[in-house]
Specification:
Length: about 270
């Protein structure tokens, strides 16, 4: 039997320049979902293992192990763990005058709410330290705040500057996420990013660990899975909606990725 768990601590203390609002870690049940809804604070999730989909402001993003997704205050969002390989993640919720300032110096943007980090173990350690220090006393709040600043400092860009515009890799990813229903070619994607196919391939492998084509396929299939779970659309309609005009081929690709055909995936919801 799978060992699911959830450990969480919440507080309404919000008077300091930065205040921890909630912190915890969870191994999700298959298909676990939060939302759609809004938060009144910022919220970071680091995915330790598994995968799922993060939906914010009407756009869906596949999220896998090694990535962090950010929720902004008063923004409609939801996140759903995969049915066969659900998330385990660590999270930190925070607010205060310093919150927006610090996040403005990171790679997060409204158009890029998911980033890949190379210090996942450190993220886990800081969240665990904040959780272990939990409490309403001045000592507890000070310890929690100190670890929260240390965690956020790891996310701040080394040059201390906010990105003024998406880089080429981000432009390519955003182009695919905005046009995944179209019949995109490698040349289309590279042209949208303003770089060569070979350059984009190398940089995608460095940042995401996959090619642009694989990124697009994963994004399409994650969107398809969400449509299967949340709509009554026919499978052929879903296939077309995510860029697969051939429903039979879509079913083969979906089955190869998730280990079951689209019809079975819908029945499990």
């Amino acid at each position: 039997m799978a060992d699911y768990f959830k450990n969480s601590y919440k507080t309404d203390q919000a008077a300091l320049p930065l205040s921890v609002r909630n912190v915890g870690f969870q191994r999700c049940t298959p298909g676990y979902r939060w939302g759609a809804g809004t938060r009144d604070h910022y919220l970071l999730h680091y995915v330790v293992s598994g995968s799922g989909v993060y939906t914010v402001e009407g756009r869906s993003y596949p999220v896998r192990a090694g990535q962090v997704f950010l929720a902004w205050p008063n923004t409609v969002l939801s996140y759903t763990a995969d049915q066969t390989d659900p998330w385990e993640y660590y999270w930190l919720g925070f607010s205060g005058a310093d919150a927006a300032l610090l996040l403005s110096q990171t790679a997060f943007r409204r158009s890029m709410p998911v980033i890949t980090i190379g210090f996942g173990r450190t993220f886990q350690q800081y969240v665990t330290a904040i959780y272990n220090a939990r409490g309403a006393s001045l000592k507890s709040r000070t310890q929690m705040l100190g670890y929260a600043y240390l965690l956020l400092a790891r996310l701040v860009r080394e040059d201390g500057k906010a990105p003024d515009a998406p880089d080429a890799v981000s432009r390519a990813a955003e182009f695919m996420e905005n046009n995944y229903a179209d019949q995109l070619t490698a040349d289309d994607i590279a042209a949208a990013a303003g770089v060569s196919r070979s350059w984009l391939y190398r940089r995608f492998m460095e940042r995401y660990g996959c090619s642009p084509a694989a990124y697009l396929r994963e994004y399409r299939l994650s969107c398809a899975r969400q449509l299967l779970q949340s709509t009554a659309l026919h499978i052929s309609e879903i296939a077309c909606s995510v860029g697969y005009p051939d429903a039979l081929y879509f079913s083969k690709v979906f089955s190869r990725r998730f280990g079951l055909p689209p019809s079975a995936a819908r029945e499990k919801t």
